[in-house]
Amino acid sequence: MEKIPVVQDIPAPEGKLHVRLTEGRFQNVRRLTSWPLLALFFSLVWIESNGEPWLLFSFEQHRILLFGNAISWRDLSLLAGLLIAAAALLFFVAVAWGRVWCGFACPQSIWTWMFIRIENITEGSAHTRARQARQPITSGLASRRLVKHLLWLALALATSVTFVGYFVPIRQIINASAQFQLSADIAAWIGIIALLTYLNAGLVREKICLHACPYARFQSVMFDADTQTISYDQSRGEPRVSRRKGDGSAGDCVDCGICQQVCPTGIDIRNGLQAACIDCGACIDGCDQVMKKLGRPPGLIRFTSESRLQGQPGRVLRPRLTGYALVMVSAFAGVIFGFTDTTELLIEIRRDRTALFRQMDRNTVCNHYQIKVEGYQKQSESVLVTLAEPAEFTLFGPPAIDLSENSANWLPYRICATIPQPVKRTLVFRFINGDSEARKETTFLTHRF
């Protein structure tokens, strides 16, 4: 199957990258994509409906709250299906438009750009930072760097608190922190995630894309000759000649190097498609600005396919893209259907482990059980508990379970019958919740067992 060759053996840039910030249409698109995602991430955790968070993965309550609806832990397969559908969407987008996810929506890229922006505000432009890195540290530079790292840590802490707030109610975290009563395990998770955010976005940065991101390793297998990705037009740009030395035979590329200076991973796109390219479009914006100043048409670096660069017509519909589309649609359809049939009542019954049965008197044998009922619908306030065969067996225990008070609690029940009875009998518990009913089987044993 035809695919785009990806250059793998270009040496990674040495030392710290001082990324030059640029403006342009692709950077505006990146902001229009990343800012709403950031707003959702930092605000969604605070939104509540009827006193419950909109989105909460509660280990304590053994449930997931999704926009006012509760999902049982037994429905976690739906989240797995959602991840499969999202992966299929990612592969579909990659085959069609390259690594636009990495460049415009990946959390690593979004947070890295924010940290770079803070660095640019506190320490100056990329040129200034590169020059200062070669000079002795002065008191003024040390102060600016201290402010930078403090701002980095503040952003990392806000990120970690928000992230943990999707597993523990955010208001609970803030109130406990204000009263210095935050539990050690929650504090540890906040500290770990804050440290990882600080390291990944502030210090490691492009190393994640260069060495740790698995997506970069197999993109050449997914891309084909019709994939729209950032490419340098060699036929137009070569030979590269400085503007001062240019002549009639020179290409449009003046070898200014701005495409590499603005790249967050420090690569030179003119060397061909590389595994570290995240398709963020910064090199396109930087090059277009140079072309505009020189009075030359933009697009020396642009989103295009290998086929179009070679003068061939590009294909929109192709087998690989169609296959990923079918998988994606099927996966999302399956997940949507699964959400229409989630668990309403989670019922668990277990026998008393201390004895198989108990002889209450000469004619009566009883079996003891523990029952736990969890409701996952708003209308499930209480559940009536009965037996399907009350004539032969007598049920002792709470006739109704208040789900708001006893949810996830084991409650004792006893079933008694007069002798003789079969050695082993299958019984059915009935759990009635309004107009709906659930049944759960168990066994009844006698002394003749």
TrEMBL record:
Membrane-traversing stretches: 35-56, 76-97, 150-168, 180-199, 321-340
Matching InterPro entries: 4Fe4S_Fe-S-bd (IPR017896), 4Fe4S_Fe_S_CS (IPR017900), Cyt_c_oxidase_cbb3_FixG (IPR014116), Electron_Trans/Redox (IPR051684), FixG_C (IPR032879), Ig-like_fold (IPR013783)
Top-rank lineage group of the source organism: Bacteria
Keywords assigned: 4Fe-4S, Electron transport, Iron, Iron-sulfur, Membrane, Metal-binding, Transmembrane, Transmembrane helix, Transport
Keyword set includes Transmembrane helix: yes
Keyword Metal-binding (UniProt): yes
Pfam families: Fer4_18 (PF13746), Fer4_5 (PF12801), FixG_C (PF11614)
Domain 4Fe-4S ferredoxin-type: 244-272
Family matches, as SUPFAM superfamilies: 4Fe-4S ferredoxins
NCBIfam families: ccoG_rdxA_fixG (TIGR02745)
Protein's name according to its UniProt entry: Cytochrome c oxidase accessory protein CcoG
Source organism of this protein record: Microbulbifer elongatus
